[in-house]
Amino acid sequence: MTEKEVVDILSQDGTEIVLTYAPAGLGHLRDMDALKDGIPKGVRSSILTSDDESIRLIHRLTSVNPLMRRIFEFMQSGRPQTVFTYFYRIFLRANVREVREQLQLFIKNKKPKRLIIVTTHFGFAHQVAAVKKELEKETGCKIYLIVQATDDSPQYIWYVDGADLEFVTSGYVKNGLAEYGRQRHLPTINMEINPTPLHPFLLMPLTSKEMINKKTQADAKSEVPINVVVPISGAAVGTHYIFDLMKKLHQKSDRFQFQVITKIAPYTKKFLRDLKGKDYIKVYASNKDKEVVDLYHQVIKTNVILLEITKPSEQAFKAALEPGTRGGVIMLFTTPVGRQEYENVDYLVRRDLMPPEAENKKMWAIALHQEKCPTDIPRLDAAIRIPDDPEEASEFIRCCLDKGLFAKMLLSSRKAKKEKYPDEINGEGVKMFWEKTAKFLVSETDDHHY
């Protein structure tokens, strides 16, 4: 399908597209921002934000409070997950007043014949699904709910019965959710596998000068500063570890320079105080989630980044990007938090984008327990886990630099993997999202002249 055909379908007379933001963390915001900025030129779209305290409260309790986070992680698997999902779905679908009123007002003002609602947050998705048929009957507007799951984790809450189309990252997620739906006798969902949405600017190629700079950063004998980007999660998990790691890395080599992106919040105040006065750390911070996402874009756009130290959130899928692109950084993953992050790591291992856990730990042992860094550290493609102790992590990273592992990783191409898994390992997930959405809409109408 050509871009013009996609534009024609999505811009059909009487069609309105609404992209939604929910007040819950940075992960879904990053994906939605990518979809918004990657929508084909010529296609109109509107933004719908929610101040629903029910979503905000659940997110804060399960991400910031350590006890509640452990309880939530316990409820992400097995029978506890089944019970939790059952009651959470009821809770979400009962708290729909604000969503209903916003959509009623939008339809009243825009008077669309066809409304396409896109969401990357399961809470918002369930709420829209709960009011969709009622609004269609009330307004005469045909409503389509398109859902994008954000992690490679078949957690039951992502089964949004009432969604017209749901995009997932792999067959593992698709099969897991489908099995849950069958077991619970829920209406079937039309699910398609599609790469996670990565912002289009991440695919922009580096100039030849920038690529030379990136390779020089990876050269152990160079004196060029090594740019390391450190995005802090919305829940600010592991900030003490991150601070110690940056300090120890810089002590080992003053080439390491850090760009930290974080939210200004009560739970990051101490972290931000610790960063003050450190000339090797630049801080980009905002008290608004959307601005934190934009600050990350700014850092990537204005710097040539070699390394990224981060949790394996939905941004782990940047491992699919070529080293010669702006977003094609070497991913250094800290300890996963929550089932979804462990499963994101498993996905990268299954697709040969990072080593299995046993091999990863063997590399740590070799690097940390020999007097000299080993020469037999294997070539890796895109990502690696770093030790949980900041001193060991800093030593491991230094060893990888000294023995040329990072330099080797910059030579790695994802071409063969993209050809083998075109619907999974592909940086153009945003473009494919809108193409598949357009094809779906064609299949849903009797008008086949496109």
Relevant terms:
Rossmann fold, 12 strands, 18 helices, 450 residues, alpha/beta, 2 domains, six-stranded parallel sheet, 46% helix, single chain
Structure, explained:
This protein is α/β, with parallel strands linked by helices. It is 46% helix and 14% strand. The chain is built from 18 helices and 12 strands. The longest helix has 18 residues, at 122-139.
In short:
The protein has 18 helices and twelve strands.
Structural category = alpha/beta
Span of the ends, CA to CA? 10 Å
Radius of gyration: 22 Å
Could you give the order of strands across the largest sheet? 2-1-3-4-5-6
What characteristic shape results from the CA principal axes? globular
How are the elements arranged and paired?
Blueprint: H1 3-10, E1 15-21, H2 27-37, E2 46-49, H3 53-63, H4 66-74, H5 78-94, H6 97-110, E3 114-119, H7 122-139, E4 142-148, E5 165-168, H8 171-183, E6 191-193, H9 208-217, E7 226-231, H10 239-252, E8 256-263, H11 269-275, E9 281-286, H12 289-302, E10 307-310, E11 330-333, H13 339-350, H14 357-368, E12 383-385, H15 390-402, H16 405-409, H17 415-420, H18 429-443
Parallel strand pairs: 1-2, 1-3, 3-4, 4-5, 5-6, 7-8, 7-10, 8-9, 10-11, 11-12
